[in-house]
């Protein structure tokens, strides 16, 4: 079941199958592995908005709703919350398709991340050339 707060305008950023190397001592997937993919999914999505290089400056609190097991296929869906001149806030929702229960999809976690677009000198730069200098804009 997907996160009810996730709008229909989300896009698939990453899909990956969890492997034994990703497990902790309890036999489930490390939370840090999931957070790494959440970060990558958000960065991939913000690049579709026009940014070339981005850095993550914030990730809100993350609560793991369901465990993830070896063989589960995780889908990381992203959507734009808002765009500023040099930053963007992205929502990432994670769903697991269970390996041992074909057809079962569960909501694992979600997070909101803030990314800043940077240039080659690692200085903030406009996300899009047409981005105005006036604060945030909501995306349709």
Labels describing this entry:
disordered C terminus; elongated; mainly beta; Thiol Ester Dehydrase, Chain A; disordered N terminus; 37% strand; 140 residues
What does this structure look like?
This protein is elongated. A hairpin with a 3-residue loop joins strand 3 (73-83) and strand 4. The protein has 1 helix and 6 strands, in the order βαβββββ. 12% of the residues lie in helices and 37% in strands. By secondary structure, the chain is mainly β. The protein has one domain (11-125): Roll (Thiol Ester Dehydrase, Chain A), CATH 3.10.129. Strands 1, 2, 3, 4, 5 and 6 form a 6-stranded antiparallel sheet that branches. The chain has one helix at residues 31-47; strands spanning 11-17, 53-59, 73-83, 87-97, 105-118, 137-138.
Order of helices and strands: EHEEEEE
Structural class: mainly beta
CATH class: Alpha Beta
Radius of gyration: 16 Å
Distance between the termini: 24 Å
User: Got a strand count?
Assistant: 6
CATH architecture: Roll
Low-confidence stretches: 1-6, 131-140
Q: So how many helices? A: 1
Instruction: Summarize the biggest pleated sheet.
Output: 6 strands, antiparallel
Query: Quick one: overall form?
Result: elongated
Helix content: 10-25%
Tally of domains: 1
Quote the beta fraction. Answer: 35-45%
- Give average pLDDT, whole number: 88
Name of the CATH homologous superfamily: Hotdog Thioesterase
